[in-house]
Request: fold
Amino acid sequence: MSPLTKLNVPKPNRQVLRPTGIKPLIVEKLIAGDEAEVLAFLAERPIHTFGMAGFIRSNGIVSPHNRGEFYACRDGEGRLEGVALIGHFILFETHSDAAIRRFARLAQKQSDVSMLLGEQEKVQAFWDYYASGGQAPRLFCRERLLAQRWPIEVQYEVPALRLATIDDLDLIVPAHAQTALEESGEDPLEKDPVGFRQRCAHRIEQGHTWVLVENERLVFKTEIVADTPEVIYIEGVWVARQRLWSAMSFAAQPELSSAR
Reply:
């Protein structure tokens, strides 16, 4: 990673998090069997925690497909104060600033983090604790989380939209790599071509990739990254350049919503 020579990131007002008790917090690695407790904790704020919940529901708490390890931060009574996935990327949910600090210190020991993702105020708090001993940042950016709530009027159907099969892999890999390159500035086909192809295949096998193929050419594809009782999260939307992306994308949304 190439570090930024100058950071000019405005610090938002810090979210007020409730203080912890006098007893010290304990951080521990989560293991198989902890799923129910963790999912109940994450379900307190499902719109903000669907990423971790989606990984757990798809892969379990312990899996190489998570590309990291799940950790719990507990108070002196054993109650959860926070949950984090730390590895290739960092996702976390906490009840206290102290839990953010503990996770940030733990993440400093990880040498190959590619992304820190979360709410603006919490990410800034995490970065304040992490920056002194962690990796130098390559890129800062912000994204908007958009929500579509049922019901939605179906303008017209896209009958050819379907779940991808492994036979579509050669069409999907370059399209998905393009979306990753445009967002991050790094080409996954150069950085980890074998692993990237395996991850695309895994999502297809799980039934998370949707495609529209015409004349053996990919026209549209998207990924259902998380599917929880409260949230279906879609990303990786790709549309062939010769198509009007807005018409195709919005037409596909009712199809994806009803296919759950």
The helical segments are 35-42, 46-59, 97-107, 120-130, 169-184, 188-191, 193-205, 245-258. The two ends are 38 Å apart (CA to CA). The chain is about 35% helix and 20% strand. The longest strand covers residues 217-227.
